[in-house]
Amino acid sequence: MTESVIIYSIPTCGDCNHAKRYFKENEISYIEYDCETDEKYAKEVMDLTGKQIVPTIVIGNKVFVGFAENLTEISDLLK
Questions:
Q1: What is the pTM of this model?
Q2: β-sheet with 56-59: strand ranges across
Q3: For each of the chain's 79 residues, which pLDDT tens digit applies?
Q4: 20 to 30 A from 75, CA-CA: which of 11, 19, 61, 66?
Q5: Do the beta carbons of residue 18 and residue 68 sit within 8 Å?
Q6: Measured between alpha carbons, how far is 59 from 55 in angstroms, rounded to an integer?
Protein backbone atom coordinates (compact mmCIF):
# COMPACT_ATOMS: atom_id res chain seq x y z
CA MET A 1 0.00 0.00 0.00
CA THR A 2 1.65 3.18 -1.17
CA GLU A 3 -1.26 5.59 -0.76
CA SER A 4 -0.82 8.19 1.95
CA VAL A 5 -3.49 8.24 4.65
CA ILE A 6 -4.53 11.52 6.27
CA ILE A 7 -7.11 11.80 9.03
CA TYR A 8 -8.64 15.08 10.14
CA SER A 9 -9.90 14.62 13.67
CA ILE A 10 -10.59 16.10 17.08
CA PRO A 11 -9.55 14.41 20.35
CA THR A 12 -13.12 13.87 21.65
CA CYS A 13 -14.44 12.20 18.47
CA GLY A 14 -15.23 8.52 19.04
CA ASP A 15 -15.28 7.65 15.33
CA CYS A 16 -11.91 9.41 14.90
CA ASN A 17 -10.41 7.36 17.73
CA HIS A 18 -11.89 4.18 16.26
CA ALA A 19 -10.24 4.99 12.90
CA LYS A 20 -6.84 5.70 14.47
CA ARG A 21 -7.05 2.48 16.52
CA TYR A 22 -7.88 0.54 13.32
CA PHE A 23 -4.91 2.08 11.49
CA LYS A 24 -2.54 1.29 14.38
CA GLU A 25 -3.80 -2.30 14.77
CA ASN A 26 -3.34 -2.88 11.04
CA GLU A 27 0.06 -1.15 10.96
CA ILE A 28 -1.16 1.52 8.55
CA SER A 29 0.83 4.71 8.90
CA TYR A 30 -1.18 7.89 8.79
CA ILE A 31 -0.86 11.62 9.25
CA GLU A 32 -3.24 13.17 11.76
CA TYR A 33 -4.43 16.75 11.59
CA ASP A 34 -6.19 17.98 14.74
CA CYS A 35 -8.94 20.39 13.69
CA GLU A 36 -9.42 21.52 17.29
CA THR A 37 -5.90 22.85 17.82
CA ASP A 38 -5.37 24.33 14.34
CA GLU A 39 -8.26 25.92 12.52
CA LYS A 40 -6.47 25.72 9.15
CA TYR A 41 -7.22 21.98 9.24
CA ALA A 42 -10.90 22.68 9.90
CA LYS A 43 -10.84 24.91 6.81
CA GLU A 44 -9.20 22.12 4.79
CA VAL A 45 -12.04 19.78 5.83
CA MET A 46 -14.58 22.39 4.69
CA ASP A 47 -12.75 22.75 1.37
CA LEU A 48 -12.64 18.95 0.89
CA THR A 49 -16.19 18.11 1.95
CA GLY A 50 -18.25 21.28 2.13
CA LYS A 51 -18.94 20.36 5.78
CA GLN A 52 -17.35 20.67 9.21
CA ILE A 53 -17.27 16.97 10.01
CA VAL A 54 -14.69 14.60 11.45
CA PRO A 55 -13.26 12.20 10.88
CA THR A 56 -12.50 13.16 7.33
CA ILE A 57 -10.10 10.60 5.92
CA VAL A 58 -8.11 11.13 2.73
CA ILE A 59 -6.50 8.13 1.06
CA GLY A 60 -4.76 9.02 -2.17
CA ASN A 61 -7.37 11.01 -4.09
CA LYS A 62 -10.39 9.57 -2.23
CA VAL A 63 -12.11 11.48 0.56
CA PHE A 64 -14.20 9.70 3.18
CA VAL A 65 -16.50 11.48 5.63
CA GLY A 66 -16.80 9.27 8.68
CA PHE A 67 -15.04 6.01 9.41
CA ALA A 68 -17.43 3.29 10.59
CA GLU A 69 -19.82 3.69 7.65
CA ASN A 70 -16.87 3.62 5.20
CA LEU A 71 -14.85 0.85 6.87
CA THR A 72 -15.36 -1.75 4.14
CA GLU A 73 -14.29 0.59 1.34
CA ILE A 74 -11.37 1.96 3.38
CA SER A 75 -10.09 -1.49 4.30
CA ASP A 76 -10.41 -2.68 0.68
CA LEU A 77 -8.46 0.37 -0.47
CA LEU A 78 -5.68 -0.24 2.05
CA LYS A 79 -5.11 -3.93 1.25
A1: 0.94
A2: 31-34, 5-9, 56-59, 62-65
A3: 457 999 999 999 999 999 999 999 999 999 999 999 999 999 999 999 999 999 999 999 999 999 999 999 999 999 8
A4: 11
A5: yes
A6: 13
